[in-house]
Amino acid sequence: MAEKKFVEEITSMEDDFAQWYTDVVKKAELTGYTQVKGFMVIKPAGYAIWENIQHELDRRFKETGVENVYLPCLIPESLLNKEKEHVEGFAPEVAWVTYGGTQQLEERMCVRPTSETLFSDFYAKDVHSYRDLPRLYNQWCSVVRWEKTTRPFLRSREFLWQEGHTIHATAKEAEDRTTQMLNLYADFLEQFLAIPVVRGQKTEKEKFAGAVATYTVEALMHDGKALQCGTSHNFGDGFARAYGIQFVDKDNTQKYVYQTSWGMTTRLIGAIIMVHGDNSGLKLPPLVAPVQVMVIPVQQKKEGVLDKAEELKRVLTSAGIRARLDDADKSPGWKFSDQEMRGIPVRVEIGPKDIEKGQCVIVRRDTREKIVAPLEGIADKVKEVLDQIQHDMYENARARRDAMTYTATTKEEFTEIANTKPGFIKAMWCGDVACENAIKDELGGVTSRCIPFRQEHLSDTCVWCGRPAKKMVYWGKAY
Amino acid sequence: MAEKKFVEEITSMEDDFAQWYTDVVKKAELTGYTQVKGFMVIKPAGYAIWENIQHELDRRFKETGVENVYLPCLIPESLLNKEKEHVEGFAPEVAWVTYGGTQQLEERMCVRPTSETLFSDFYAKDVHSYRDLPRLYNQWCSVVRWEKTTRPFLRSREFLWQEGHTIHATAKEAEDRTTQMLNLYADFLEQFLAIPVVRGQKTEKEKFAGAVATYTVEALMHDGKALQCGTSHNFGDGFARAYGIQFVDKDNTQKYVYQTSWGMTTRLIGAIIMVHGDNSGLKLPPLVAPVQVMVIPVQQKKEGVLDKAEELKRVLTSAGIRARLDDADKSPGWKFSDQEMRGIPVRVEIGPKDIEKGQCVIVRRDTREKIVAPLEGIADKVKEVLDQIQHDMYENARARRDAMTYTATTKEEFTEIANTKPGFIKAMWCGDVACENAIKDELGGVTSRCIPFRQEHLSDTCVWCGRPAKKMVYWGKAY
């Protein structure tokens, strides 16, 4: 069989970022296809990343008292219609079920695009007293939104996610939970996925359909486009009033609950690819990597080499490292490229000369640095390298993000940056949606990404209209 | 607040088994309702059981080389229609999506009732060479089947499950995988859920739509009705031929793959309730119980009692036991009933006198046995009790199942048992579907549950028609 080097096969990201992305997704075997248009198949290498994300997020959720539940996948139209802004936001993009078996339904039902309406209906029936509050429920499921153009992980007619839906006795508790979950998302992204984010609030124009306030974590991709990585919404008592979620409070009066929701999706896999990847393929942070170390024997047909490589893998595995051995009948060079394409953070090379010297060679995926290390104590050394990679990948992503974050104080400056420098633009804003609309129209799709919690005073006036500024905003083109 | 004893509120299973079941599901807070008819909400206490089932099954799957994936939730009609027997089995009970947003779809799509068709389409595109085989994929998801009458966990328009779909180069490999997974299911049920099962093959009449052979694990509920707890199907090359799943074999010729599928569902929660429960409520085997031990303080307002109870909980938790403390402002008696209703396998009572003596009282949920134990070394003692409960619950369920398993060698005997004694009936069968149909019609719904792997020779002739017998069959009424 002819050995092809994967590295020769992918488009470079500088030439065509979109094609590079598609190539990585395909060559790293993250997704596959069926004839169901606009829907993706998540293959084992992609799904294992999602499992690690799920496991870590779920653990963090539960530490804050969240419990998992499961609600129906279909929503009757009348239920969807109860909250006016919400239905306007979602009705145009849902899939409608009209027949059950051979019978036409009396009322059509949509495949859930999100489940605020169902949780509201459920809570209205299930909650009676202040003793029943708060309710901190979450579900892991898939949702369907009838997108016109789709891309694996980034925009798909179906995606996997978690959606948390909580209800509280007071407005303050709901607001506290909304920001708590936003900060949980931010910490998860930075600590686990090594993705630096800007934490902030969405403008009125960009907030979720039906929310009083939407908070977001925004990351910057390699091409300078922003990706919204998670959102947390405070609904106030809007849904509670629309769906009648009431409770008897301590003072013996009927009150409406205050509600939140928050979600993260398989889109995160797209973020990992576009924040960390390079022209050799995927680059996974060690904590989320399904395989952290690939042991690759050199001259594996020589006596004792495969045995030693197998033993090395066992030593690493016993120490809790997710290690595998590539003993396929292929050249080491082919295996190196393959391991790099799949984003495995570390490879350990071992050949006859290494065995003679009682050593092996650790090669970092992120920097390509080669570290000759004694076999004695190898597991500790590999753990140290994995920790270092996790740390460095975050720092590098942050340095790149910072280098691609610009400041504009005038319309001209803003326009020039938007037209020539991909990245975030920090600029003051008057708070008027008219400026947001004009910016989007005139600068080819630049939108307000968020009003960051960490405000800076860049100037006194709105970068677009010159009226007094109210807030500093992160702007950018987004996925 | 008035304290009600839960035990007074549920129907006894001898009076009305169906109502008892409904009461337990409700009082143990396993499910809830929305206005989506026929669909269930799985509440935290129910979902936590499912999570433990998932975790253990997933671990066992992966040990055999299975990998998780995710495929689309919608199936285009033309794709569903490709395998004739399969579509005839499922088309009458699927939900049809006809609109995406405001646009009528060119081709309607059903919400997946099962995913053989999708996996076949995917594999046909993804597999090319014998080197790509076997593929051992599984997915965790929900499916929709438009049932007319529904009951929580047992029959619902949507349920959660796992569906494994594997393809192989040879018929033998596929057959081996089919029985391997069936045995994995049986071991899981017996070891983890303490549910004894009969392993066997479905008759032609009862097998899965499109399968060459369907294997099943059948359990007996408290009321003497059978519940199919898991199935494993060998499809031969039927789907491969219908969907064109071919590969180039080592001999350089194109061949069709051989295929299997196997699934377990949230129905297992219904099985746990109906095999183990009693008139005090749910009774969970320790291995699957989300909470294994409830620490209940007695005279908790006396100084030092709550502190000691809290310390006891911490000691148990540190030892890896899933323990909680019930420090609510309610009487111990109320808490005991509550813990029993929820099926928590062990409670530990501790009051001022116990503290004085350096002891506590362990009470088993299954036998109500009280064990006075010193606080010194309490975690080991509780572990020992939990192990014993797990063991005893299985043995008790098996003894009950065996006591409710009858043997019939004549039509008269068969009829009499079917009409008077709920349970399994073992009887010889000629192999003719006409006898199965007649038995079902004349004995009020008695069906062949399976042809057990462990055959017994009960007589020479079919219990119904008197012709020569081919196999011994387990018969019974089923959920």
TrEMBL record, chains A, B:
Record InterPro entries: aa-tRNA-synt_IIb (IPR002314), aa-tRNA-synth_II (IPR006195), aa-tRNA-synth_II/BPL/LPL (IPR045864), Anticodon-bd (IPR004154), Anticodon-bd_dom_sf (IPR036621), Pro-tRNA-ligase_IIa (IPR002316), Pro-tRNA-ligase_IIa_arc-type (IPR004499), Pro-tRNA_ligase_II_C (IPR016061)
One GO term (biological process): prolyl-tRNA aminoacylation
EC number: 6.1.1.15
Keyword terms: Aminoacyl-tRNA synthetase, ATP-binding, Cytoplasm, Ligase, Nucleotide-binding, Protein biosynthesis
GO cellular component: aminoacyl-tRNA synthetase multienzyme complex; cytoplasm
Residue span, Aminoacyl-transfer RNA synthetases class-II family profile domain: 44-285
Residues in the signal sequence: none
Protein role: Catalyzes the attachment of proline to tRNA(Pro) in a two-step reaction: proline is first activated by ATP to form Pro-AMP and then transferred to the acceptor end of tRNA(Pro).
Family to which this protein belongs: Belongs to the class-II aminoacyl-tRNA synthetase family. ProS type 3 subfamily.
Alphabetical list of HAMAP family matching this protein: Pro_tRNA_synth_type3
UniProt subunit comment: Homodimer.
Protein name: Proline--tRNA ligase
Gene behind this protein: proS
